[in-house]
Write a structure and sequence with these properties.
The protein is an alpha/beta fold. The protein has one domain: SGNH hydrolase (Rossmann fold). It is 52% helix and 13% strand. The chain is built from eight helices and four strands. Strands 2-1-3-4 form a four-stranded parallel sheet, sandwiched between helices. The longest helix has 27 residues.
Length: 188
């Protein structure tokens, strides 16, 4: 009988040794993602739940990633404007930034070279802070999509929920990889 009790005690101790530490482990650390840019980011004309940042967050979570995605979009913003407000557009603790800007620049006559230089400077500033960044640009961002009635708001050239869903589909792979990498760095 004593050996049966000793066996049971050893088993119980083994369970505590292996199971309890796993249960006490914190969940994977949340990765903060900021999406910054113009009305394409803000989601002009659609409910908040249907804009690009909200749909991106839902898609990342559906892949099992622990994320929080902020919306740093401002209607009418330009690459120079974004550079000027970068510190306020990217919340503290952000690990990944998605940049979507440039359409307003081109409409106002700013050269593509200047837009690219502004975005490169933004990405350099983020990199100096240890933040990974991704710039949504052609061919991922296709201006022709803004001419597709199924993807834009009626009487407007801004995306509707389906347009943002398409953009999430085009960008999710790259962004999910960046989030996974950031989560591993954070855990190390």
């Amino acid at each position: 009988m004593a050996s049966l009790r000793n066996l049971f005690a050893s088993f119980a101790l083994g369970v505590l040794f292996f199971v309890v530490p796993a249960a006490l482990q914190p969940a994977a650390a949340q990765v903060q993602v900021a999406v910054i840019g113009d009305s394409n980011v803000y989601g002009k004309g659609v409910p908040t739940s249907e804009n690009y940042p909200s749909q991106l967050e839902a898609a990342l979570k559906a892949r099992g990633l622990n994320v929080s995605v902020s919306n740093g979009g401002v209607n009418g913003d330009t690459s120079a404007g974004l550079a000027g407000r970068l510190d306020s557009a990217v919340p503290a603790g952000t690990r990944v930034v998605v940049i979507w800007v440039g359409v307003n620049d081109v409409r106002r006559g700013v050269s593509r070279a200047e837009v690219q230089a502004n975005v490169a400077a933004i990405m350099s500033r983020l990199r100096a802070k240890g933040i990974e960044s991704y710039f949504i640009r052609p061919p991922v961002y296709n201006v022709e999509d803004h001419k597709n009635p199924a993807l834009i708001l009626q009487g407007d050239n801004h995306f509707n929920a389906a347009g943002y869903r398409k953009m999430v589909g085009k960008t999710i792979g790259t962004i999910a990889s960046m989030v996974s990498k950031a989560a591993k760095k954070k855990a190390a």
